[in-house]
Design a protein that fits this description.
- By secondary structure, this protein is α+β, with helices and mostly antiparallel strands.
- It contains 10 helices and 4 strands; from the N terminus they run ααααβββααααβαα.
- A 4-stranded antiparallel sheet has the order 1-2-3-4.
- The protein is globular, with a radius of gyration of 19 Å.
Length: about 220
């Protein structure tokens, strides 16, 4: 199961015509693209479940996201997302757990894994877990398979200027403890998401990142 050419074309056209009028006149194309992504998600739940038993009970609807944007607090009033995506995590998209995310967007597809912007209590727990077990964490994120798959390392998109409360600059893990999110990403080309080997690429990437996710999820 792969992303179909028609799905990529729909998302490309939507980016150029992000209005309710255009969307409604092309609803059949949207429904076909939506079904394509839902089928991929269902297939990936089954395959990833063979790697991680925590994912076996997931339902497709727990993993996929609505295409409608929440524009209430955004300057960008475009009504629709120009991507489709799914997250694979114990408890689904509403759970406060580290997860594995697959993002489909023409020319900008990617996979991501980790914990994005955990709430304060969870963030504190993750930092404490990293501080207490830094050698184990460092071993995970510096392994050859990990660095070859996620070549950019941990995202520095959200980071504190100063050490978080309770930690000092001399802490060997301080640059990681300053992070407010713990996420790694891997870009995917349009060719990769349409290739017969797509599912294998996703499963193999999950295997590589699973120890990272397990570590983050031990923080309580």
């Amino acid at each position: 199961m792969v992303i179909q050419k028609q799905t990529i074309q729909f998302l490309t056209d939507l980016k150029k015509n992000n209005t309710k009028e255009w969307f409604e006149s092309n609803r059949k194309k949207y429904e076909a693209a939506k079904e394509n992504v839902q089928q991929i998600t269902t297939s990936l739940i089954e395959q990833l479940g063979k790697v991680d038993e925590n994912l076996t009970t997931l339902q497709m609807k727990e993993c996929t996201f609505r295409i409608n944007r929440d524009v209430r607090f955004s300057k960008n009033k475009a009504p629709y997302k120009t991507n489709m995506s799914a997250i694979f995590a114990k408890g689904g998209k509403k759970a406060e757990t580290a997860g594995f995310y697959v993002h489909f967007e023409p020319g900008q597809s990617f996979i991501a894994a980790g914990f994005w912007s955990p709430e304060a209590k969870k963030l504190q727990s993750i930092r404490q877990e990293i501080d207490y077990n830094y050698n184990d964490f460092k071993k995970i994120i510096s392994s050859k398979k990990f660095t070859n798959t996620f070549t950019n390392g941990l995202s520095k998109e959200q980071v504190l200027v100063r050490p978080p409360k309770g930690y000092d600059e001399e802490n060997p893990a301080i640059e990681i403890l300053k992070l407010k999110s713990f996420v790694v990403t891997k870009p995917l080309t349009d060719e990769e998401i349409q290739a017969p080997s797509f599912a294998k690429l996703i499963v193999e990437s999950y295997k590589v990142v699973q120890p990272f996710l397990n570590f983050l999820n031990t923080a309580e």
